[in-house]
Amino acid sequence: MIKHYWWIIITYVLMQLSAFAGVPMMYKYLLGTGLSKELAIYKAQAYWTIFSFSLALVIILILLKNVRQIELRDEAKASVKASTFWAIGGAFMALFDQSIAANIEINVFGIDPGSENTQIIMDLVKMTPLLILVTSIIGPILEEIIFRRILFRVIYKRTNFMIGALVSSILFALVHGEPEHILLYASMGFTFAYLYVKTNRILVPIFAHTMMNTFVVIIQFLYGEEIEKMTNQMEKIQIIIGGI
């Protein structure tokens, strides 16, 4: 693996771990006064996420530029027209695959359809709308660079699509901190890996990922309460059916 890849991965890992020190520091020195403790902690989490993700994106893009100067550029890429088609269609593919995975989790494995990770993010977005930039744009860009541009690409070139997509998608799922929803996140990972292989343009899965995340955030923001009520009703129906 190219040396710059390791620095990119290290930057991403440090960004993920930085919250353990950054959030308390943000709370103590910038938000510890004038707000209730709970609200101040939430805002500290949101502001540190915006800062750390933005800084990591800048560093990773600089490192990635150096990588592109090292790598060979003789690989065929899809045309702009085809890439646009797959970028837009890929967002719908990801949503479709996600819905299938969600149904399998609910109906086959009996997993709670709710996502604690998504709920926490939406709570933070409501308090700090600027966080939408991270959830809808910066986050997906970083994830596609790490899990598709680097991990999937390296493994895929040494093995095959299935192994590369499986390993990178499982890691992609685990990073989200919800191992019970590994099928849900892995299905998205496979979709984005397919888009990358199909076009050989990392911008395609990046665009599809950002579109999908933006759509989910908007739906959650506008209809979050209705979705939660429907989820609770589904859980009650499952309990009743299970007791028959």
Topology (elements, then pairings):
Blueprint: H1 3-17, H2 19-29, H3 37-70, H4 80-107, H5 116-127, H6 132-158, H7 161-175, H8 182-199, H9 203-243
Helix pairs in contact: 1-3, 2-3, 3-5, 3-6, 4-8, 4-9, 6-7, 6-8, 6-9, 7-8, 8-9
Can you give keywords for this protein?
244 residues; 82% helix; 2 domains; mainly alpha; disordered C terminus; 0% strand
Question: Which regions contain 5 or more consecutive residues with pLDDT less than 50?
Answer: 233-244
Shape from CA axes?
globular
Query: What number of domains?
Result: 2
DSSP E strands, number: 0
What is the structural class?
Answer: mainly alpha
Termini gap: 56 Å
Largest sheet geometry: none
Please, what is the average pLDDT?
A: 84
Strand content: under 5%
Helix content: over 70%
> H/E element string?
HHHHHHHHH
- What is Rg? 19 Å
Number of H/I helices: 9
